[in-house]
Prior knowledge:
Elements: H1 2-7, H2 11-71, E1 80-83, E2 86-90, H3 96-102, E3 115-119, E4 122-135, E5 158-170, E6 174-184, E7 191-192
Antiparallel strand pairs: 1-2, 2-3, 3-4, 4-5, 5-6, 6-7
Amino acid sequence: MKNIIANERGFILVTAMVILLLLMLIGIGAMRTSSVEVLIAGNDKFHKEAFYSADSGAYLTPILLTLARDTGADPAAGPQITLWGIDGTTLSDGTRFYNETMGFVQDATALDPDFQVQMGLMPVNVDINHTGSRHMVGGGVEFGMGAAGVGAGSVAGVWIGYTLTATGQAPKSSVSIVRANYRYVPGTAGGLK
């Protein structure tokens, strides 16, 4: 009996070491899972920042279109313009933005933005393309202007269509592109659709 006890002296030590090894492997697996989840959360955050920036750029554009059409020129005396407290830049030589909004010039590439605004640390580039003019459906223009009464159509009886392409950027090369159609109705408030 003494020999059996003497031979089993290291059994508890070996069992304890195997259990510690298993616990260490479980801990390493948990740490790896946690670090991957942190990376996923970071990428998700950057994706959302890029999307929200691009979305904001699309919603800033209608005021620029209104300014350009109402004043008959680019919306700023110089390249700098401030909209709702946000500083932006018209990427134009002084007439290109106006000419594009009027439909005199067609620039169908989103790689050549017309307006840039700084959202946080990253820029948002916005490209505006004139898509054409159409008569308002269901308005007095169909049966003679004003025949249907006040408010039946727009002042001019037409709407002017634009395609807006806003490209938002965020850290870690995150990019989001938001495209929207804008219907400008002279004399009334238009809206994104």
